[in-house]
Amino acid sequence: MTTNPLSDIRTQISQLDSELLTILSKRRMLAKSVAEQKIENNKPIRDLQREEQMLVDLINRGKDMQLDAYFVKQVFQTIIEDSVLHQQALLQQHLNLPAGENGVNRVAYLGSHGSYSNLACHRYFSRFPGQLKAMGCSSFLEIIEKVEHKHADYGILPIENTSSGSINDVYDLLQHTDLSIVGEITQPINHCMVSAVPTSMDKITKLYAHPQVYAQCSHFLAQFDGVEIEHCEASSAAFEAIQNDTTGTVAALGSGEGARLYGLNIIAEALANQKKNYSRFIVLANQAISVAPQVPAKSTWIMSTEQKPGALVDALLILKSHNVNMCKLESRPITGNPWEEMFYVDVEGNIRDNNLENAIEELRASTRFLKVLGCYPTEDVPPAKLTLES
């Protein structure tokens, strides 16, 4: 009986991969125990100095095993990020009662199985206890209404993209809801052209895509002058529209991960105008949450200023005087008030911090309207600074 050396090697690799998964699971459980100790002793989640020294030690040990320093750094920074986010989630669970009932988190999102919103939903709630019941919706308004009417505990909506910018429809809806932002997540975006049967780009005569996805791939799509474009409510709807095609002449745009769930073929990938393409999602709930002091926080509010020269500048100077770092400023028209703007402000900081609390109180006194939309843990986990020797 002859043996296949390649098959034997692949079997060994599969066994090692299984062992790696077991080790990663054990490490995550230990990180949970660390978080419980930090909660009990009121210690910060991160120790950047320790993280840096740990990375240096691992890189040096890796060199002795013929492992590239950049590879070791990338792997363990990903592991550290996962650990930090899970510890933050555990800390938040101790501080806030979960919105879900009977151990179930009902989450409304745009589209259906395989949409970008669906993928972000699963990533975000994977860190929280309880069963996830994902509820697909056909519009942003439907998502908000499901949460407002308590048919869902949470809603997850895209708010901005690094390629196409802000999602204006979502900003406009936030003006008119009493829901609170309780979380955020940044989802990496990999737009692909996919088909139900193997084909090539030159055979495509019709393309299904969500308008945002289409806009984000405009440079690539400029070559398809004669192709009919059909806009869909979500990338998952585009997948569903083509999944029974047998001609090889229709295609859809969406994530490669989502396309594989539908058994579709990837014709081309990495199609966005910006190769590093990310979408930021916000999580909404009926009740605001408290953010633990150990957890990096972001706060968001909307405000309108007096209709006079320098009013917005005066408001921003208040933030500067209280040492508040603004990370986003977005303006949108006020419905029913022509030429008047509502400003959306994201800042770094916990709304319970004295400097931010004082800044908001001063802003309330100097603006026509101010409404806090939420204070929530930030998903940004900056890596420990480490310069690798060449």
UniProtKB/TrEMBL annotation:
Residues 300-377 form the ACT domain. The keyword Zinc does not apply. Keywords: Amino-acid biosynthesis, Aromatic amino acid biosynthesis, Cytoplasm, Isomerase, Lyase, Multifunctional enzyme, Phenylalanine biosynthesis. Residues 1-91 form the Chorismate mutase domain. This is Bifunctional chorismate mutase/prephenate dehydratase. PROSITE patterns: ACT, CHORISMATE_MUT_2, PREPHENATE_DEHYDR_3. One of its GO terms (molecular function) is prephenate dehydratase activity. Substrate binds at R10, R27, K38, D47, E51, S83, Q87. One of its GO terms (biological process) is L-phenylalanine biosynthetic process. The keyword Cell wall biogenesis/degradation does not apply.
